[in-house]
Design a protein that fits this description.
Blueprint: E1 3-14, E2 19-30, E3 35-49, E4 52-61, E5 67-76, E6 81-90, E7 99-106, H1 120-124
Antiparallel strand pairs: 1-2, 2-3, 3-4, 4-5, 5-6, 6-7
């Protein structure tokens, strides 16, 4: 393991879980480079239907330009499986920092409805 990290997440739900705001603040230790970083993230998810959420987020650390991304999360099988698709890029950098990401989350009871409006990057850590 080359990285150690810890972070504190915060989420706030509005309009009966139709809008969810997320924030986190953390620390990342690269043991190979012997480097410490402060990490952070801000995001919002808006439910378009019972199984479809659109989200946007900005995240980064204290050493590099931040990243932005936006995308969709689609729930399947009574929210047991979530598939997300997002596009993003690093701000202030060349266009070659653009990316497309596909994520898969599987939620087991009692966590089945926890991720309904969650943003994929926030659930994975820094």
């Amino acid at each position: 393991m080359t990285h150690l990290y810890a972070y504190v997440p915060f989420s706030r739900s509005f309009a009966d879980d139709q809008v969810v705001l997320h924030a986190n603040l953390g620390w990342l230790r690269d043991r190979v480079l012997e480097d410490n970083r402060t990490t952070w993230g801000l995001a919002a998810g808006v439910s378009l239907s019972d199984r479809l959420t659109v989200f946007g987020e900005v995240f980064g650390d204290d050493r590099t330009d931040p990243f932005v991304q936006t995308g969709l999360i689609r729930g399947f099988m009574d929210d047991f499986i979530h598939l997300d698709l997002s596009v993003g890029r690093q701000l202030g950098s060349a266009p070659d920092t653009s990316f497309v990401a596909i994520g898969l989350n599987v939620y087991f009871p009692p966590f089945r409805n926890v991720g309904r409006s969650s943003v994929s990057h926030f659930t994975r850590g820094p």
